[in-house]
Amino acid sequence: MKKLFIIGLVIGHSFSAQNISQRLEAEIKRMTSTENMLAANMSFYVADEVGNVIYEYQGNKGLSTASTQKIFTAIAALDKLGPAFTFKTQASYSGQLQNGILKGNLYLTSNGDPTLGSWRYEGFKPENFKAKLLAALQEKGIKSVNGDLILDDSYFDMQTTPGGWPWNDIGNYYGAGVWGISWNENQFDIWVSEVKAEGSGDSSIIYTAPFSDFALINGKLPAGKTSVVSGALPNPPLVLGNEIKKWLSEKGIAFSGNILTYNTEKIKGREIAQAPANNIFFTYQSPSLDKIIYWFLQKSVNLYGETLVKTFSRMKTKNSSFDSGISELKQYWKEKGIAPAMINFADGSGLSPQNYVSAKAEVQALLYAQKQPWFDVFYKALPTYNGMKMKSGTIKASKAYTGYHQSKSGKKYVFSMIVNNYSGGNINGLMYKVLDELK
Predict the structure, then answer these.
(1) Looking at beta carbons, which pairs linking 93-102 to residues 24 or more positions away fall under 8 Å?
(2) C-beta separation of 389 from 381 below 8 A
(3) Quick check: 199 and 222 in contact, CB under 8 A?
(4) Which of 44, 61, 186, 319 is most buried, with most CB under 10 Å away?
């Protein structure tokens, strides 16, 4: 009887797997026969919780991932840095401090904290940073600065955006670059009330470049209301420097020097001293990485992904270039058993259309994550769409979903679905109909 029972279980499991496979196959055939998919490419892969293949359609095919690329960066960050990792920002000074008068320069430096001045974190908002910095100045007894305020943004190199990012993205808030010193997630808002309006949605595009002095806003805004357009700051350290100057004035701390940033002066051909290793009187810790990863995946903050990629390389080799960071990320996943041909990364966030990753590779990454002690952190950070815990990705004519789902029968699935070059506007509905078979 025991043997018959075991055989029955095996037969039941095989029937169940075959059944879901057949249903997925039928839905894929329906989807690929639609007009939306006439010129499209797709990679689709479904496994059970231990990695057994349930169904695949061109699972090895590399396609543009859009923001599902973020799962690779998030998992690597939790593994390499740990959920408790924090970035830090410090204030120091050069010269002599006598009777409250600093006869030297005031410095601010950071190891690239992308959350500095962010509005997302309780206790870490702009006003919190301001209060703590001013309190440190007061405790140190600095009442006057007879020197310059220097924002030492030299921790990362001067290339702030990956080479594969489109020009019509990098001036917008989601295309904010990576700087040694960040502020307000390196974005700004413009309230626009008197423009030629057309349509019902915001289709404006901001064109600007790192270190630029101007920006062009193009496109259309909806009529009948004031619109807020968000763009990428072309020089966040300089913006923060001007904020600090205002704070000093509000606090009654005299300051008559210049506001300088290390990399801006370097562009002008002037080398200035980096922040001194001594005379540090203020250290500010960022929120922990588990909280950063939550917003990274929930709100798809591209800045966080690219900062983490640079951090991987900067901490290991002192090289903070994007190329070095991407090589480090790819090597990490190669060591986890993913075929290099299936992870042709171009950035850490998915904004570049030059990312080519297969659905199978995404599933392999998710399978690895669920075995790690920090998995709950990662799982909690994944958004919910269509009643399923999964990361979405959207760039021009590309849509992707990857994540986990438990069916009503208790069966657990790990999946990835990537579609490129589709047409029409109902691709979500088509993809959801396929994924609904996992419910």
Answers:
(1) 93/142, 93/276, 93/279, 93/281, 94/147, 94/273, 94/276, 94/279, 95/147, 97/140, 97/141, 97/142, 100/141, 100/142, 100/143, 100/144, 101/143, 101/144, 101/146, 102/142, 102/144, 102/145, 102/146, 102/147
(2) no
(3) yes
(4) 186
Provide the token pair at 414: 């790990």
Per the structure block, which two tokens stand in for 205? 């595009």
pLDDT at 110: 98
Q: Please, are residues 98 and 143 in contact by the beta-carbon 8 Å criterion?
A: no
**Which one has a higher pLDDT value, 87 or 228?**
87
User: Which of these, 213, 211, 87, 238, lies nearest to 152 by C-alpha position?
Assistant: 238
CA 116 to each of CA 186, 230, 305, 307, 391: distance values in angstroms, whole numbers, following the listed order: 9, 18, 15, 12, 25
pLDDT tens string 45-97: 999 999 999 999 999 999 999 999 999 999 999 999 999 999 999 999 999 99
Tell me which residue of 250, 255, 167 sits closest to 215, measured CA to CA. Answer: 167
Provide φ and ψ at 406, rounded to 5°: -110, 125
- Residue 334, sorted as left (phi over 0), alpha (psi -120 to 50) or beta, turns out to be alpha
Nearest-angstrom CA–CA distance, 303 and 306: 5
pLDDT tens for 361-378 read: 999 999 999 999 999 999
